[in-house]
DNA sequence: CGTGTGACCGGCG
DNA sequence: ACGCCGGCCACAC
């Protein structure tokens, strides 16, 4: 017996309402993050409608290195405000450097007043 | 076409 | 408070 129930999903898209892929959509949101602000993967996922799958956002960021123009992935952190993806940057300290340059206070790989500078696309972009 | 994986999140023990 | 585990979607091989 199979380990889990494998649900088949309709992977066949009959139409392409969205010209941009999921990746591009994520990039577009991230680029709209104001300077000095930051958001979480979950917030973006929620805005995209896949809140239960915040991993997708993180993975999208994985390809962000190849995206143009460059995506300010440093403004995207996990819900704890921790710079979890700093290891994926050019240098482990690059993310923190960029955030500090934006005026964000980072301490021990974590945004101090993350709650205050939190920027929710689901709200901001909804206005 | 099947399998694995991923910078997460939330719930439960 | 902490640690573990399941889930969810998209993409690469």
Word description of this protein:
This protein has 127 residues and is mainly α. It is 34% helix and 6% strand. The chain is built from 6 helices and 4 strands. It has helices at residues 22-31, 41-48, 54-62, 94-101, 114-117, 121-124; strands spanning 39-40, 76-77, 106-107, 110-111. A two-stranded parallel ribbon has the order 1-2. A hairpin with a 2-residue loop joins strand 3 (106-107) and strand 4. Helix 2 (41-48) packs across helix 3 (54-62). Residues 1-18 have low confidence and may be disordered. The protein binds a DNA duplex (13 and 13 nucleotides) through helix 2, helix 3 and strand 2.
**How many helical elements?**
6
| CA radius of gyration | 16 Å
Strand content: 5-15%
Mean pLDDT, all residues: 85
Major pleated sheet = 2 strands, parallel
Tell me roughly what share of residues is in helical segments: 25-40%
Spatial arrangement of strands, main beta sheet:
1-2
Secondary-structure element order, as H and E? HEHHEHEEHH
- The gross shape turns out to be globular
Q: Return the structural class.
A: mainly alpha
Low-confidence stretches: 1-18
Q: Termini separation (Å)?
A: 50 Å
Q: What can be said about this structure in brief?
A:
The protein has 127 residues and is mainly α. Helix content is 34%, strand content 6%.
SSE diagram, text form:
Blueprint: H1 22-31, E1 39-40, H2 41-48, H3 54-62, E2 76-77, H4 94-101, E3 106-107, E4 110-111, H5 114-117, H6 121-124
Parallel strand pairs: 1-2
Antiparallel strand pairs: 3-4
The chain binds a DNA duplex (13 and 13 nucleotides) through helix 2, helix 3 and strand 2.
């Amino acid at each position: 017996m199979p380990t889990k129930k494998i649900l088949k999903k309709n992977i066949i898209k009959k139409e392409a309402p969205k010209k941009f892929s999921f990746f591009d959509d994520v990039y577009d949101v991230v680029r709209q993050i104001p300077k000095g602000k930051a958001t979480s993967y979950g917030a973006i996922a929620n805005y995209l409608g896949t809140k239960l799958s915040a991993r997708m956002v993180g993975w999208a960021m994985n390809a962000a290195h190849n995206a143009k123009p460059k995506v300010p992935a440093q403004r995207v952190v996990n819900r704890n405000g921790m710079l979890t993806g700093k290891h994926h940057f050019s240098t482990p300290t690059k993310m923190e450097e960029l955030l500090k340059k934006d005026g964000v206070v980072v301490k021990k790989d974590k945004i101090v007043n993350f709650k205050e500078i939190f920027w929710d696309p689901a709200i901001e972009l909804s206005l």
